[in-house]
Structure formats: C-alpha cells, structure tokens
Design a protein that fits this description.
mainly beta, Porin, 12-stranded antiparallel beta barrel
C-alpha cells in the first residue's frame, strides 16, 4: 500500500476517535439565586432558584430546584430532573420528572423545550402531567440588557395554566397566575453578582376567586435583595 493510500486510512480512525472523545467530554454549568425581602402584605419573603446541567454538547442531565418561603413557612418547593437533547442551534427538547414538596406532595411527568428566541429572549416552555392525571403548563421568558459591562437589567415573565380545576392546589382551569419582574444585578465577577429585584404577581379567573374567598389578595408585590452564583 502506498503512502498516499495509507495516510487517509490512518487519518479516518483518528478522526472518529477525536469525534468520540469530543462527544464524551462532560461539562457543567449551574446558577443559584438566593433572595430575601418583603411582600405587599408585610410578610417576609425568601426564595431559592437552582438551575443547571451536566453533560456534553448534545446530551445533558438538566437539574432544577426552586421554592418560596413566606414568614419562614415554605409555600412552594419543587425539584426537576430532565434529559435534555440539543435539537437545533440554541434549542433543547427536554423530558423527565418533577416532584413538589409544597404546597402538595405531587409527582409530574415533564416535557418541553428551552432555548434562545429572537432578540436574545431566553425561553422555557414545559407541559406537566401529574400522578393524578392533571395537566398544566408553564412559560418563562427573560432577557438581559447590559447597562454597562457589569450592570445588567433583566426583565422576566412567568405564567402558569391548568387544563382543569385542581382542588388540592386551589387553582381553576385556564391561566391561573402570572408574575412579571425586574432584576438589577452587578457582576462583581462573572461567578458572583448581588442584585435587587421587584416582582408583581397576579392571579386570574377561578384561581383568583378562590384566593379572595380565602382572604388573600389577587395581586401581590415583592421586593427582594439577593445574590446570583455561577459554578
């Protein structure tokens, strides 16, 4: 076999080995936000939000945990574990499970997608089917605006909707609630950024009627200060 014939034959397995090594490379990226403040009702408010993944370019294990406390009592707490597949540039499709400790202990099957929409809008949309067969959905969108290289303004919107009434959660069918917020953070380093945030929450339809009947407000305003950590 000539050298001209031998070189491509040797380079081909090397190329496959390099590709395999690239596919097996494991990365990770996590974001943790911790915040505390006050609501319009005068209650102390605190929250945590952990979001991140472990894996390669195409296949990832996506992990999430988030929750809220009011006057030191846990109002909501949920944990996610999702398989995430890179379907297209900037877009992943996801499927997995979610488990809520509060307000009701419930497991869910989750499917949806996450990615970067036009104009750099980070988008997450997920569908949930509970262990009782209840169907709900959540949309979360946010965008970073760089005021300076270190000062960043981030507006965001989150909405929840239900296909049916869920008495255990005290929600009605249709759009149940929405939260619009604004976070202003200063990146001392890329990994450490304190912030202040204000958010307005509103309940809709039958969910709002249930809240009013329980002596709660249809709307609420929360001001918090917190810190964002990247690792």
């Amino acid at each position: 076999m000539s050298t001209r014939t031998l070189l491509p034959a040797l380079m081909l397995p090397c190329a496959f080995a390099a590709q395999a090594h690239e596919d097996m490379t494991v990365f990770h990226a996590f974001r943790l936000e911790l915040a505390a403040g006050d609501s319009r009702a005068g209650e102390s408010a605190a929250s945590w939000d952990l979001d991140g993944w472990v894996g390669g370019d195409n296949h990832k294990l996506w992990l999430k945990s988030e929750g809220e406390l009011a006057d030191h009592d846990t109002e909501s707490s949920e944990s996610w574990a999702l398989y995430s597949y890179n379907l297209d540039t900037f877009w992943d499709v996801q499927a997995g499970v979610r488990y809520d400790n509060r307000p009701v202990s419930t497991g869910y099957f989750v499917t949806g997608f996450t990615g970067l929409a036009p104009y750099f809008v980070e988008t997450e949309a997920h569908l949930f089917v509970s262990e009782d067969g209840d169907v709900s959905a959540r949309l979360h969108v946010e965008r970073d605006w760089l005021l300076t290289q270190k000062l960043i303004l981030q507006p965001y919107l989150e909405m929840n909707a239900y296909a049916q009434d869920v008495k255990e959660l005290e929600v009605g069918s249709g759009v149940s609630d929405a939260t619009i917020g604004l976070q202003l953070r200063y990146e001392i380093t890329r990994q450490f950024a304190p912030y202040i945030a204000i958010s307005a929450e509103k309940q809709f339809g039958e969910t709002a009627d249930i809240a009013v009947a329980d002596g709660e407000h249809r709307t609420d305003r929360i001001i918090t200060a917190g810190v964002r950590l990247l690792f």
